[in-house]
Predict the 3D structure of the following.
Amino acid sequence: MGVDTSLKGTLHRRGLRMTPQRQLVLDAVRDLGHATPEQVCTKVQAVAPAVNITTVYRTLDLLEQLGVVQHAHLGHGAPTYSQHEHRHVHLVCHSCGKVDEAPTELLGAVSERTLSEMGFRLDATHVALSGTCADCLERNDPDAADDAGTPETPEGGP
Amino acid sequence: MGVDTSLKGTLHRRGLRMTPQRQLVLDAVRDLGHATPEQVCTKVQAVAPAVNITTVYRTLDLLEQLGVVQHAHLGHGAPTYSQHEHRHVHLVCHSCGKVDEAPTELLGAVSERTLSEMGFRLDATHVALSGTCADCLERNDPDAADDAGTPETPEGGP
DNA sequence: CTCCTTGCAAATGATTTGCAAAAAC
DNA sequence: GTTTTTGCAAATCATTTGCAAGGAG
């Protein structure tokens, strides 16, 4: 370890500049765990109302290029940003939208299989597993809690 | 089986109407495997140029409500639509964007674990696993093809 | 003939871009 | 002082909605 890993150092090594906005965005991402650009913006604006959402987008892109944060697609809507050190698999309930987290080792065996069988290296932290959380399972389907294959066919008649 | 499974029958049972557009959209989804609304639209317009993309969006929504197609989020951009009968897990390469498919049983053990440990029922077909495909692995990283878990952890102390 | 469905145009929501002013080095 | 960064407004892209005309049953 001889490399400067501070945000300031990382920026300076590339001829980029340290600004309060960049620190605030990074802090917000750290704080929120996995948040959309808009959530990050709201958090930042709680401290510095003048910061524009444009800057948040630009800064998130930049921090990702620097390898300081990463984004994952949790399902239907916006990408969410978090830090590499929070390595976990996201479990998104597509009924209530809740995001659970599971240890990446959950996918260890799967990862090995895709690598050896198809040469595909999984990035577990970028994955969002979709399904139905415990609460919604009970709420919608009190006794079919052991079947993982039957599609539910939602109703939508006028 | 006594239930009419044709699109026309499914529609009629709910008081909805069969139209050429709906058949075309369904054919396009079947044909394309997993396609974004825009790709479906392009395919449909190859046959019927007058069909509006609005209709494609509306029809995809409808077909999904009917349980005829489903959508999955494959990563960065648009959702993609496919058929329930093609039950597979998507493996998306976030380097080249290629989409591979794996049998859903790949996630069987994971599914059992999330269900018993967290009460979370996975929907394997809705899942997109992200990572690096064999081609891109070799292209970028010719000899590190056996590591699926060691992170480089960027630091940033307050 | 009666409602459902479509096409169009305009509304919306999220993200990006151009540019001059402000800030960092 | 020079170059990067920011804020704002306008542009863009994807998706949705209102409404009148067109089509299915």
Notes: Residues 145-158 of chain A have pLDDT under 50 and may be disordered. Chain A has two domains: 1-85, 87-148. DSSP finds six helices and six strands in chain A.
